[in-house]
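hey team, just a heads up i'm posting the complex here instead of the shared drive bc the drive is being weird again. everything in one block, sequence lines first with there labels, then the predicted structure for the whole assembly after. its two chains so it's a bit long, scroll down
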Amino acid sequence: MNDFVPARDIPILLGAFFVLSAAIGLMRFPDLYSRLHASSKLVTLGSAGIFLGVALEFAQTEALTRLIAVLLFQFLTTPLSAYLIAQAAYLRGLRPLLEGPDEWQALGKAALLDTDPNGAPPER
Amino acid sequence: MRGLALNILLALVWTLFVGEFSLRELAVGFLLGFLILSVFPLSLGTGGYVQRALAAVRFAGFFARELTVANVQVALFALRRHPPLHPMIVAYPLRLRGDSAQTLLAATITLMPGSVAMGFNPERTVLYAHTIGLNSARAARASVRKVEDALLPLYGQSAAPEESA
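-- predicted structure starts here --
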């Protein structure tokens, strides 16, 4: 067992903590939309922390450039999947559990469907 | 784009001068080249590039800070006994125009404290977001507006409010 190296181990521990909270949040939050907050934000920074720690462990240029590429794709794809899941659920009619207004519905849900009834892609 | 191409060219010229092609020298050359471009913005016609690059750096710092805040907040919500989620869906009238700018805004919103982007209206003038931990729709709109304010200079668009839908 190696000794505790703060520069390497603190990012990993923080990342693990965020990923653990994401798992707990996924279990405890009341509905799909709230759970997306846990799965998108926490997993992004959590995995970033773990990757950062691993890259610092190797401390080579190649490890760092790969870290940058991984983080870039992580930051690009995680919000995209959260967006698609939320939009698909909402347009399929899964009612969110709300304590405040639903301004999407207030503005007219029918007009906001991005596709026509035949399922063709929207005209741009 | 012309500014970026010039900057990369200057970085390559620097590696030729040093006689060593490595990531480190390329980065040094890029920084030196950026310095040259920012000292002579008019004669090289790169003023817009320098300003947008600086806006990008500022945005990266802003993003890192907000992402950290968001994570601490959601982690606390996950661990608290009765988290004050107060979920709601807000509509945000966009000032930002253009597909890539709006995509970046939606992605950033999702990683920011309290909000997950859910959709646009067909005209791409309103962004819908699910929010937690924010007390009012006004507060939610203010937090989206903060991101938009950071993104507007990046895309060279004015912050002047235009007619909203």
